[in-house]
Amino acid sequence: MEIMVFFSLLLLVCSVSTNQTEADNEILDHQILSQQPCPHDINAVLREMAVSMAGQKVRITFLEKENQDQAAKLESQKTEIERQKTETEQLKLLSKEQAAKLETEIDQLKLQSEEQEAMLESQKTETDQLKQELQDKKVAFSASLLDQDHTDTGPFNTETPLIFKHAIINIGNAYNLSTGIFTAPVRGVYHFGCKVYGHESIQTGGLLFKNGEKMFLIHEHQKTAGGVSAYNGVSLLLEVGDEMSVRLWPKSMVCDSKNHHTTFSGHLVFTM
Ligand SMILES: *[C@@H]1O[C@H](CO)[C@@H](O)[C@H](O)[C@H]1NC(C)=O
């Protein structure tokens, strides 16, 4: 009998939904009581109490189970929050890393553009230098002694500088018209030529000097009257700043006119 009641009670409790209310519980109690004949002895009271206790126990078990479920749910929510927090942290870290990476990349690009600018600047300087060098390589001059009516120069007892005052060309301005000195602007092989013209029965002659040192003689001597010429051409390796000039050979004479008989010429053949 007791077992039967307990099972029917259990069935009733199990059929009750989780949203059970206080009112539902009262109905349940009433049902339990109504299934029992009204007790008149102590045994009946005890049975009733046992039934009631069993009912309470089932409810407690049910509540405990619900509690456990909610705790588990809470735990899983906590885990989820924790997971999301971790994810957020990771994203933050990642975005920080990306920002740092970007900054580094920008710095590198800046450096690169600075380097390219410097390279461009140095290339410009190099180009300018090459232009200048090319300009320096254009060296040529030709000058006659005078540009006036027939005039004799000499004779003198000593070597006398000849200043060829009438330039036909003077590219690179390496030849100085007021001193008669050619100064090498670059290291290289140069070619020089000097022609002297004389007349009467007196010798004509010139001397080509390099830095005050005698290099070549241009000379002619005839015993009879009349015009006479001499020429000498040389190639020389000159260093920057080397000076070339012509002097009148002692006791000789040169003459020049608007016809340009007596000349001094030179040009750069190639640099070295
Ligand atoms: C020629 O030489 C003189 C004297 O050394 C100098 O004063 C002058 O500037 C020079 N001229 C040129 C064109 O170099």
TrEMBL record:
Pfam families: C1q. SUPFAM superfamilies: TNF-like (SSF49842). Residues 134-272 form the C1q domain. It is found in: Secreted. It comes from the Eukaryota. Keywords: Coiled coil, Secreted, Signal. SMART domains: C1Q. One of its GO terms (cellular component) is extracellular region. Residues 1-23 form the signal peptide. Residues 60-140 form a coiled coil. PROSITE patterns: C1Q (PS50871). This is C1q domain-containing protein. It comes from Oreochromis aureus.
